[in-house]
Every structure is written in structure tokens, then in C-alpha cells.
Design brief:
5-stranded mixed sheet; elongated; 6-stranded antiparallel sheet
């Protein structure tokens, strides 16, 4: 799959599958294995001949054991379809393809010397019993039996008693196996097992999958196996031995039968080569000899389907078979027609990070992924009614295994021949899948997205496709987008189509339904509309502020590994860096106009910024995004090949306050003074206040009297641009002292959801002697009326904590902050001009850490 370059996303998304089904009622869902139930059993599937299905999708969903991480190791897991048959006969508890026998006694001959002459003495051989099964209602109940003997030889002896000649006593009867399909299993039935899907479990060690991880697999080619009542066996084993492993993931398995007409009808499905442990050595060819294939008159096409993985790696230079990139070849009539590497890129898989060596590329498998079946189209090379041979071989290898170095390398292979009718349509473009936007987990690395959406299409008709016209958009939007793709697709070719110059227009953080429809193919209406539409749920992308800093700490080999780029929705490069130094911090800062963007951090070697088995050589790096000094997104350094994310920038919710400190001045004990605070949005984004509280307010005499609009735990207040919420606070001092408290809010402010405003008040007892309370800081003010200046002297023995001096009027309004230092060296002195102040009473408030000292003065002009 290619989207200019494979772009990969590393943010967390909500998991669900996109919908590419027909209208409601056109899909039959069959549920089989459920979480925490047996992974085997009989299930009812659609009946043969009742309906036609254009597609069969298998939904394979795994989940970690309740409350636990997933299983530690990467085991082979399978989905098998077991078909059971009743034989017409058995011998010795086994079924045989055919059996020749005698109904008379068979003899064994032994040379014996009697009276100086050698003669043959004979003894009867053991008999066998053939059991016959001919009851149509109870097909595995023996209905008859026959005592029989194997064929035998008679001999001639020479004068020394040596056998010199033999003659076969021929069988007088032969029975051949016939099988009757049954829908149960017992000790008599014959099991024919077919693998329709292989999956490799993820490395656990801390991996959690929440509600589960879903894989969707097209199993349409296995339609003949998926009808009527079938037995499913879905074990989780290891190294191909299919041994049950209950410590691995729970499984949920279902099938979607989508009604309609397929690209071509399946006529025949039969097994080809199969091996659960094909040792990778010079004897491979003898295990996979050429097989005869002949198409009947009604078979107009054929496909070879191979499910293959490699396991083990012995003491050899190639690390075969798990870690060696070897080529498979398909020959027809001894002429090579296909060659492909049995290989898989693991640093790009969507299920990451995992606990083990998940990033290492392997032989057509990755931990935590389904195994891709390789399809080889045989149609062009086969002629109906003529005999052909098909051969499947691997790149030659003959290095001996060294005992004790892991496991001897071997392949696990299942393969099938599927034959078909003629294509059912002349002109048909099929919408196979929506790649983005979607919540489908297979495309996690490409989503969420807000521009350059893409789909996968297939030519499902005879005629070559050179153009496809699409209609797409978001449900509920008045505007739609038309896009025409041009290219070249023959029958069954696929293409990824990216819709440039179209982006989601709204800034909502709600998921939206995205739709795509094929309108025209080659300038005409195609033959089959049922596969032309698709709908997915598009999650909202991350919404970030305009001022951003992309912060990268490199590891030991940065110059050989990394590339960073930021682009806008038209793919214009905003920032790019190709060269990095080892163990260095980089901060790429930028102010972006409102709109959609993406960034990509690539590791050319596929090791992310950290991987545990290379940490001694490579070290560890880190990557995050910040704004105004606040970290707003942090990325796991164990990301394999890429970090990729699309995001939207614009104004973010920010809370504004009319005061950063609410000062009540001097208040008599027993008398409540009130002040107000106004809250609003700093920009045009809605802000929401969820609750308000004064920490330890009752202890110091503070309370929230009212809010307008009314705010409560069940009634949050949302303010649009220009709107305000007024908070009225009361102060009734408990004692004669300067006290402080915090008015706290929980909000949707992007930078900090928790906010606080400081409350300061002075309690005064008119009947007492007002003395300055003992504190760790002091303030002295001398006012010079002629100079209209106040000389302020500060003294503190604090060793840490910010020191501020604020000026308030008698109503508690903040005039300004006239002193602001992170540290003080015990004593400081400065002058403050009062020329701008009118006559009246004022307060200087010295704050040092969490201590407050207040000093009043009066200006008379």
C-alpha cells in the first residue's frame, strides 16, 4: 500500500471497525467463538445454495486475560475448519484409501529339514476384521464385518533349504474408501482440516488491549468450507504444534456474509501442499513436488493461495527460517511465472509497542498480526481440458542445522487451488476499504486524519479500468467533493486512491460519518452498484494551538537514523530536518496559521528512539510537542519505523480572569465583605467551567456566595466568545490576621484544566490591639507626599519561593504588581511612583511563597 510514502500514526485512538457493508439486512453475521469460551465447536452457517455472497469477512478479535497483560511470547494461532466424514469401511481402527484382501486363510512358510530333506511348513497368519458402515441414519455404526487376510507368497527351496523362488497368492477382493459428510465427530469419523487464517500472538510484557484488538480478514475464497454446519478449531499454540496455551489472549470470532454477486463464482476448492514442519534444507523440493492441475470446461479461472510463515533459526548465517528473506517461486508446466519474497516489515505494524522484539522483520509474519495469504493468479497459464503441473518451491538452502542454537528452521505452509467461473461483470470498480479517515485498528498509524483521505479499490470486472469518479464528504455537510482518479487496473488489480484538496471543514472534536461513493467508471456507470459505497466513522484529529515546539532528544546514532518533516494540507513543507547530532536536544518551533497539518519523524533503521535489545548500543531518545512551555503530547519512543500524526491548529480553549488575586482589604471580625471575579474566554473558543471550590475556605472565612450563570457539579457552565461568568465571594475573617485561600476551578483550558485564583483578606478586631503577625517576611512603606513616591523596604529570611508585591485599592481591585522576583537575598529596597494614583486608601501585599504580609497607606492630594 502506498500513500506517496507510507505515513504512520502514533497517537491513541478509540478502536472500532469502519463499515463497508451493504444496506441493512444484506449481511448475515455468524457468531462463533466468544471471549472466555472454548476455542472449538460446531456452529450453524448459511445453508448451501440458499443465497449468494459477494464477500465473506472474518472478524478475529483478541483481548488480554481480564486484569492481566497479554501472553508473553509470540505463538502461532490458527483458524481451522474441520470437515468430518463417515467412511464405508475401517481396518484396525483406521481408514484406508483402499484395501486388498483374501477371504481365505493366509499362510506363513518356514523352511524345515525333515529326513535330510528341506520342506516348507506352513502356519496360518493372523486375520483382520473389516468393519463396514452402511447405515444411512447412523453412518458411524458398524453394520457388518468380515474376517480377512492379507495376501501372501509361496516359495520354492533349493537343496540347501534356501528360498529360491516365490509366487504371490493374489487377493480375491478389494474395497475402496468412500466418504459421507457428517456433522458430528466421534472415534470413527475422518477429519479433513483446512486452515483459513493464521495469526501470531503479540509479545505481552505490559501490553494491554482494553476492549480488544480486531482483525478483519477476507475469507471469500473459503466459501465452500463456510456453509451449513461446520466445526471450527481456533487454537493458540506454539511453533506450529497447535498446543493449547490458555495464558495467551482470549478470542472472539465472527463472520459477516455480505449478500450479492462476487467478482466471480467459486467452483472448486482443494488442498495443494501442506506441511506443519517443512524443515528448510535441500530436501524441501521432495516435500513439495509438482502437482497435476486440470480445469474442467466450466472452470474459467484459477488461483493458488499460500499461507506461509518461517520459524526457528539454527546455527547458520541466514537465521533461517524466522529471520531470513528468501524467495518463493511458482512454476506452471516447469516455467517460472511468479517470484516473491516471503517477508514482512514489522516496524510499521499498527499494534505497538509490544514487550519483545516486535520491530524485527520476519518471514511473512509479525508479532500481533494476521499472516498475509499470498495469491498467485494462474488463469493466464491454464487451458481447460488440458493437463498442467503447478510447482511451488523456495530459494535453495542446504546449510546444516547446528544443534542447540534455537530451533531448526522450518516453514509452516498451507496452500489451496481455487477455481472460478468467468467474471460476473464487464465493468466493475469495487470499493474495498476506507483507509482514512476511519477508526479501524488496521489503519491506526494513518488515523485520525483531517486531509488527504484515501480508499482501496479493486477492478472486479473484465474490462480494464482507467478512470474512476468519486463522490465523498461528511454526513450532515451541505458541501460534497468530487474527485476523479486516473490510472490503469486490469482484472483483480488494486489501487490506493488519495483524495487531495479535500479536508474536514469543521473544528468539532466529535466523530463524524464519512462516506465515499463510486459514481462513474471509465466515464460510465459500472455494472454493479452494490460494491460502490462505503461509510466510516472519522474520529476528530488532535486540536493544537498555533504556537508549537517539536522537541527531539536524539540517541547515540542520530546522524544515521532520523528525518523530521512538517507539512500543511497541500503538502507544502513547513519545516524539515535531515541531519542530527548524537545525544542532542532539538526544538523545532513554529507559529502555524489555522488549518490541518501533519508531521513525521522517521527512523531509517527502524529502531524508533528506543528498543530494549539495542539500548546499550543506541541509547534512548525522546520526543514530545509543547506550547508556551507546556508539554501537550508525549510519544512512546518504542515506535519502530515512524511517528506520524495529522493535527489541526487554531485557537484553543483558554480561561481568562478579571483578577489573578482577589483582595478583600481590612474587614472587621464578624462582618462579611464581598468581592466579585469575572471569568471569560481569551479567544473565540468555547470554555467550560465544571466546578468551583475554595480549598480550606471555611477555616479562614471564605465562601462562594453565588455564580452567574449558576454553576454546580451537575450543571457546568460553557461560555462562548464575549460571555462572562461572575463569581461572588464572601470574606468573614475568623481572627485578626492576614489570611489567604485558593479559589479553584476545573475547566477545559487546553494548557491547564485546573486553575486557581488567590484570595487575600485582613481580619481586624476593633477592640483589640492590631499587631503585625509573626511571619517570615516583612514590608515597610514610607510615603513622600511631595515626591509622590513610596519607598518600600522588604525583608525575608526565606531561602526559596517567588516574592511579589501587589498594590490594591480599598475596594480590593488590583492596581498592579510592582515587584516580582524568583528569589530574594534577605533584603531589598526600591521606590514606587504614586503619581498615577488618586487620593484614597491603598494596600501593599507582600507574598513570599505561601506567606502574606499587608501594609496600608493613604494618599491625599
Amino acid at each position: 500500500m502506498k500513500l506517496r510514502s507510507i505515513l504512520i500514526l502514533l497517537i491513541t485512538v478509540t478502536f472500532s471497525a469502519s463499515s463497508l457493508l451493504s444496506a441493512d439486512g444484506d449481511t448475515t453475521k455468524v457468531r462463533t467463538v466468544e471471549f472466555n469460551t472454548a476455542r472449538a465447536g460446531w456452529y450453524s452457517f448459511p445453508k448451501s445454495g440458499e443465497k449468494k455472497f459477494r464477500k465473506i469477512i472474518m472478524n478475529f478479535k483478541i483481548k488480554c486475560p481480564d486484569g492481566k497483560s497479554c501472553g508473553e511470547w509470540d505463538y502461532i494461532s490458527n483458524v481451522f475448519i474441520d470437515k468430518y466424514f463417515a467412511p464405508n469401511f475401517r481396518i484396525g481402527g483406521k481408514s484406508h484409501v483402499s484395501q486388498s484382501f483374501m477371504t481365505d486363510t493366509a499362510w506363513a512358510f518356514t523352511p524345515e529339514k525333515i529326513n535330510d530333506a528341506w520342506v516348507l511348513t506352513k502356519t496360518p497368519k493372523p486375520s483382520k476384521i473389516i468393519y463396514f458402515y452402511n447405515d444411512t441414519k447412523l453412518p458411524t455404526l458398524a453394520t457388518d464385518s468380515l474376517v480377512v487376510w492379507d495376501t501372501y507368497f509361496t516359495y520354492s527351496l533349493d537343496a540347501a533349504g534356501k528360498k529360491i523362488d516365490s509366487a504371490l497368492v493374489a487377493a480375491d477382493s478389494t474395497v475402496s474408501l468412500t466418504k459421507k459428510r457428517v456433522y458430528f465427530k466421534d472415534e470413527v469419523t475422518i477429519n479433513e482440516r483446512s486452515e483459513i487464517m493464521r495469526y501470531i500472538t503479540p509479545y505481552g510484557n505490559g501490553l494491554k488491549l482494553g476492549d480488544g484488538w480486531l482483525y478483519t480478514v477476507d475469507v471469500t475464497d473459503f466459501l465452500p468450507l463456510l456453509l451449513d454446519s461446520i466445526y471450527i478449531y481456533a487454537p493458540c499454540g506454539g511453533w506450529g504444534d497447535q498446543t493449547s496455551n490458555t495464558d495467551q489472549e482470549a478470542l472472539e470470532l465472527s463472520f459477516d456474509f455480505i449478500e450479492g454477486t462476487p467478482a466471480r463464482d467459486i467452483i472448486r476448492l482443494e488442498k495443494m501442499w501442506e506441511s506443519n514442519r517443512a524443515v528448510y534444507n535441500g530436501k524441501f523440493e521432495s516435500l513439495f513436488p509438482p502437482l497435476p492441475v486440470e480445469l474442467a470446461a466450466n472452470e474459467k479461472g484459477a488461483r493458488l493461495k499460500v499461507i506461509q510463515t518461517g520459524h526457528g533459526f539454527g546455527g547458520n548465517n541466514d537465521n533461517c527460517s524466522e529471520f531470513c528473506k528468501k524467495e518463493a517461486n511458482v512454476k506452471i508446466d516447469d516455467q517460472q511465472r511468479y517470484a516473491r519474497y516471503i517477508w514482512r516489515e514489522c516496524g510499521e505494524i499498527p499494534l505497538f509497542p509490544q514487550g519483545g522484539t516486535w520491530i524485527n522483520d520476519r518471514t511473512n509474519w509479525c508479532p500481533g498480526m494476521d499472516v498475509e495469504a499470498h495469491n498467485y493468479e494462474l488463469t493466464p497459464y491454464l487451458t481447460a481440458g488440458e493437463p498442467h503441473t503447478v510447482d511451488y518451491s523456495m530459494e535453495y538452502y542446504n546449510t546444516p542445522y547446528v544443534d542447540g542454537s534455537n530451533k531448526e528452521g522450518f516453514w509452516v505452509i498451507s496452500s489451496y487451488l481455487i477455481t472460478y467461473s468467468e467474471p460476473n461483470f464487464n465493468l466493475d470498480a469495487e470499493l474495498v476499504d476506507i483507509i482514512n479517515p476511519t477508526q479501524k485498528q488496521a489503519y491506526k498509524r494513518l488515523n485520525p486524519s483531517c486531509f488527504n483521505y484515501s480508499v482501496l479499490i479493486q477492478n472486479s470486472g473484465k474490462e480494464k479500468i482507467t478512470s474512476v469518479k468519486f463522490r465523498l464528504g461528511f454526513e450532515g455537510d451541505e458541501s460534497e467533493h468530487n474527485f476523479t482518479w486516473t490510472g490503469n487496473m486490469n482484472f483483480l488489480d488494486t489501487a490506493t486512491v488519495t483524495f487531495y484538496d479535500f479536508a474536514r471543514s469543521d473544528n468539532s472534536q466529535e466523530a463524524r460519518k464519512f462516506f465515499v461513493e463510486i459514481m462513474e467508471v471509465n466515464g460510465k456507470t459500472d455494472d454493479y452498484a452494490a460494491n460502490n459505497t462505503g461509510v466510516s466513522l472519522a474520529p476528530a484529529v488532535a486540536y493544537l494551538p498555533n504556537d508549537l515546539s517539536f522537541n527531539l532528544k536524539t540517541n547515540n546514532y542520530a546522524s544515521q537514523q532520523y528525518h523530521f518533516i512538517v507539512r500543511d494540507s497541500e503538502w507544502n513543507v513547513i519545516k524539515e530536518r535531515n541531519t542530527f547530532s548524537d545525544n542532542t536536544n532539538y526544538a523545532e518551533t513554529m507559529t502555524l496559521p489555522d488549518g490541518c497539518y501533519d508531521f513525521q519523524l522517521t527512523n531509517k533503521l527502524g529502531y524508533g528512539l528506543y528498543t530494549f535489545f539495542m539500548v546499550q548500543q543506541l541509547g534512548t531518545g525522546a520526543f514530545n510537542i509543547s506550547s508556551r512551555g507546556n508539554t501537550i503530547a508525549t510519544y512512546n519512543p518504542d515506535f519502530g519505523n515512524y511517528i506520524y500524526q495529522q493535527f489541526r491548529v487554531g485557537p484553543v480553549p483558554e480561561i481568562a480572569y478579571s483578577k489573578d488575586t482577589v483582595f478583600f482589604g481590612t474587614t472587621l471580625l464578624g462582618v462579611e465583605t464581598t468581592q466579585t471575579l469575572e471569568i471569560s474566554s481569551k479567544n473565540n473558543r468555547d470554555v467550560t467551567i465544571y466546578n468551583a471550590n475554595i480549598f480550606l475556605g471555611s477555616s479562614y472565612g471564605y465562601r462562594i456566595i453565588s455564580t452567574s450563570p449558576e454553576l454546580s457539579a451537575n450543571n457546568p457552565v460553557t461560555l462562548k466568545a464575549g460571555e462572562k461568568m461572575t463569581v461572588t465571594i464572601g470574606f468573614n475573617p475568623k481572627n485578626e490576621a492576614t489570611t489567604g485561600a485558593n479559589l479553584t476551578f476545573e475547566t477545559n483550558d487546553f494548557y491547564s484544566t485546573n486553575h486557581s485564583v488567590r484570595l487575600i483578606g485582613i481580619g481586624d478586631d476593633p477592640n483589640g490591639v492590631n499587631e503585625m503577625p509573626t511571619a517570615t517576611a516583612a514590608i515597610d512603606v514610607t510615603y513622600n507626599a511631595n515626591m509622590q513616591t513610596a519607598r518600600i523596604r522588604l525583608n525575608t529570611n526565606a531561602t526559596a519561593g517567588k516574592t511579589q508585591v501587589k498594590v490594591f485599592d480599598s475596594m480590593g481591585n488590583l492596581i498592579g504588581i510592582i515587584y516580582d522576583q524568583e528569589t530574594m537575598n534577605g533584603y531589598d529596597e526600591f521606590e514606587y511612583s504614586t503619581q498615577a494614583l488618586t487620593s484614597g486608601a491603598y494596600y501593599f501585599v507582600l507574598q513570599n511563597g505561601d506567606k502574606y504580609v499587608t501594609k496600608s497607606f493613604v494618599i491625599a492630594k
